[in-house]
Design a protein that fits this description.
Strand order of the largest sheet of chain B: 1-2-4-3
Radius of gyration of chain B: 49 Å
Strand order of the largest sheet of chain A: 1-2-4-3
Number of strands of chain A: 4
Largest interface: A-B, 78 and 83 residues
Strand content of chain B: 15-25%
Radius of gyration of chain A: 40 Å
Largest sheet of chain A: 4 strands, antiparallel
Oligomer: heterodimer
Number of strands of chain B: 4
Number of helices of chain B: 4
Distance between the termini of chain B: 132 Å
Number of domains of chain A: 2
Structural class of chain B: alpha+beta
Number of helices of chain A: 4
Helix content of chain B: 40-55%
CATH architecture of the largest domain in chain A: 2-Layer Sandwich
CATH class of the largest domain in chain A: Alpha Beta
Order of helices and strands of chain A: HHHEEHEE
CATH topology of the largest domain in chain A: Alpha-Beta Plaits
Chain lengths: 178, 201
């Protein structure tokens, strides 16, 4: 092998290197194009997901219009008395204002079954003996002024006097979860 | 065609050959080098441009994906908040459904009494598991079931349905027990003041 062959070999190596460099460049381009295609797919998937999510949201909004309106109307009534103490004071005041013959009253906080938003209620046990009209009018006023209150038990029987009524009441006032 | 030695051996200095010339086939190697350089430059330029375009495209797609993901997350958060509101509304609705005023019912029962009948004991208890249902029991001072029929008619007029009725009559007293379920739903309107009745007999 003489110097000409040697020079020829060097030139051949240069050619191989050039080819290799071009191939490497081509591979880099192809890899980047694949990455761009993957990114495009990801964008497409994200767009579809957004469309799906927005459709679900719109459907849910449409389906829940009445419920949300209901909540908007009733929530302030539930929030007006938001602690057991204020509920107790409220009931005591209303009994005192009516000047009814109150034989017994007791308050306790009780859990509410199957209602996550109203986990507890303030329960009032009240016993009255007073005039029939006064008692029932007071009860009607109480139910009108405290619309979220519910009577969980009521027992009405004859009182000691002719027009008197004995009324044993158990009232529940909801305590909304904060 | 024979390749000229002067055209091919560019790097050769002007001196006398001391080695034998290359075979004709090997004289193509330098020509191949020139061609390779040309092709490499052309292809390299094309690949470079395509690479730049692909990088730009990838970055655009990634940025767009990021924006879409943020919007999706916002929509998801809104949906979660709305679901929480719906749950709350459903719970409140359930409570409101079980808090229909009972005073009108009691007043109506009292008003239904005929002159010779009386209520000895009246009791309404809300079912713990189904608060919309009321366990109704009444003890009437009467000799016939006519009074009870009148009372039940008045109850039905207030849109209460009676279930599982039981009654017993004896010694001038009539015992009646049933489950009452209201057919009325309280609306989304503010609580009505007209739901109460005056308690005069």
């Amino acid at each position: 092998m003489n110097s000409k062959h040697f020079a020829c070999a060097i030139v051949a190596i240069l050619i191989v290197l050039l080819v290799q460099f071009t191939l490497w460049f081509q591979n880099s381009r192809s890899k980047m194009q694949r990455e761009a295609a993957v990114a495009q797919q990801a964008e497409l998937a994200a767009a579809q997901q957004l469309t799906r999510e927005r459709t679900q949201l719109a459907d849910l909004r449409r389906q829940s219009v009445d419920l949300i309106e209901f909540l908007r109307t009733w929530q302030p009534y539930f929030e007006s008395i938001d602690s057991p103490q204020s509920a107790e004071v409220n009931y005591t005041m209303r009994v005192k204002e009516a000047n009814l013959v109150n034989l017994a009253q007791r308050f306790e906080q009780t859990p509410v079954k199957g209602n996550a938003s109203v986990p507890t209620a303030m329960r009032a046990y009240l016993t009255f003996e007073d005039d029939y009209s006064r008692l029932l009018n007071w009860l009607g006023d109480l139910e009108a002024k405290m619309p979220t209150m519910r009577i969980s038990s009521i027992r009405v029987s004859k009182g000691t006097r002719a027009d008197d009524l004995r009324m044993e009441l158990t009232l529940e006032h909801p305590m909304l979860r904060k | 065609m024979q390749l000229s030695a002067r055209q091919i051996d560019d790097f050769k200095t002007e001196r006398k050959d001391i080695t034998p010339p290359l075979p004709v086939i090997l004289r193509l190697v330098p020509l191949l080098l020139y061609c390779s350089i040309g092709v490499a430059v052309i292809l390299g330029s094309i690949f470079f441009l395509q690479l730049q375009l692909a990088v730009q495209k990838r970055e655009n797609h990634r940025a767009q994906t990021g924006t879409l993901s943020t919007q999706t997350q916002e929509a998801r958060n809104q949906r979660t908040a709305l679901e929480a509101q719906i749950k709350k509304a459903t719970d409140i609705e359930a409570w409101v459904a079980s808090s229909r005023p009972l005073q009108p019912l009691i007043v109506e029962i009292a008003r239904s009494m005929a002159p010779h009948s009386s209520i000895i004991d009246l009791r309404l208890d809300r079912d713990g598991d189904a608060p919309a249902q009321l366990k109704f029991s009444i003890k009437l001072g009467t000799d016939s079931t006519k009074q009870l029929d009148t009372t039940l008619e008045k109850i039905a007029r207030l849109d209460y349905r009676t279930f599982s009725p039981q009654q017993s009559l004896g010694r001038g007293e009539l015992d009646y027990r049933a489950t009452l379920v209201s057919r009325l739903q309280r609306s989304s309107n503010a609580p009505a003041a007209g739901e109460r009745k005056e308690g005069t007999p």
